Amino acid sequence: MPPRTPRAGKPKLFKVRISGRAEKFGVAAFTLKELIQKGSELFKVSGCKQKLQCCLYEDGTRITEDYFQYVPENTEVLLISEGQSRSGLLYDIRQVLGSDRHSDELISAAKRLLTDDGEELPAKRRKLLGDLLNNLTDSAELENRTQDQDWFQGIDSRFKTKSAYMRFNCEQRIRGYLKEVDGHAQSIVSVREREKYKKLVVNLVERLKSDRYNGRYFDRTEQQQHRLCTDDGWFTCQGAFDEQNCESLHSINPYGNRESRILFSTWNLDHRIEKKRAVLPALVETLHGQKISSINLDYFYRLLFTRTNLKLVHIVCHKKGAHNLSCDPCQLYNHGKNT
């Protein structure tokens, strides 16, 4: 049963918003026409240049003059251009995503909610607002230390740009893999094969040095085919080792702010064919009775240190159990010298 019509002579109070703006105003009106007129004046929208219509903010239901009489007091309404549609939450999301990332009004509104209503807001909503602010107030477009000193807190002073540090960050991860490869020599019982293995590692080191330890993967100033991020520095999870894509659509921009930079350290460059369980044992196996020159070192290099076998994954998508994938036996040796 619809609410009863208000008493004659008494205006109805509404909370009025306008498409694309974060603020809202209280407006008292006797008719829908008056509500739209007052709202357009408050938001400084010319009715001559832009004909407006009114709908419920909650679900986008359009308000007509007849329906106006049944709308409850203090209802939130939205003024939109004639012909424009609104579908509740979907519309809200599109408005936020389509707004200027650095919209002062949107940032200010989120901060007011956290400040004024913070204790009353449920924890989940506080988290969502916090994440929204974290992304809205990012400084991804800034590159130099002098421009964004907060981003560089805790980082050695020798790094003058974000890209230089992110390149170093990737290099350190690859160096960590190299350390594990080098340490694997201790598990080889045969002295002769251990020495051959060490010579192979020396060759891998030289290759890595020439490739600058593949630090370009995290460097947004590199050419597109060499990096894992966009021009702005956004990284997207590539999904677990046995999946084509990340179903959760994880993404992060460590160039945006210090918090995102720190969180990015939890993302992994995961080996699809596992380094310890598959690649290194296969490399040791190839040494049995074979000359070093017959081993396809390029193949092992790609499996250990390059995007051929590495996937960038969010920590949630990093499956630490056995991958049960093995090296291709046809690529272990050069020129088909597979014995």
Short description, anyone?
The chain is built from ten helices and eight strands. With 339 residues, the chain is of the alpha+beta class.
Please describe what this structure looks like.
The chain is an alpha+beta fold. 36% of the residues lie in helices and 11% in strands. The strands form three sheets. The chain has a four-stranded mixed β-sheet with strand order 2-1-4-3, covered by helices on one side. The longest helix is centred in the middle third of the chain and has 22 residues, at 162-183.
Key words describing this protein structure:
alpha+beta, 10 helices, four-stranded mixed β-sheet, elongated, 339 residues
Write the layout of secondary structure elements.
Elements: E1 12-18, E2 25-29, H1 32-42, E3 52-56, H2 65-68, E4 75-81, H3 88-98, H4 104-116, H5 123-136, H6 162-183, H7 191-210, E5 235-236, E6 251-252, H8 258-264, E7 268-271, H9 275-286, H10 297-305, E8 310-313
Parallel strand pairs: 1-4
Antiparallel strand pairs: 1-2, 3-4, 5-6, 7-8
Helix pairs in contact: 4-5
Poorly predicted regions are: none
| Sheet with most strands: strand arrangement | 2-1-4-3
**Rg computed from alpha carbons, rounded to a whole number of angstroms:** 30 Å
Q: How would a crystallographer describe the biggest sheet?
A: 4 strands, mixed
Percent range for helical residues?
A: 25-40%
Number of strands: 8
Sequence of secondary-structure elements: EEHEHEHHHHHEEHEHHE
Coarse shape: elongated
Beta-strand content estimate: 5-15%
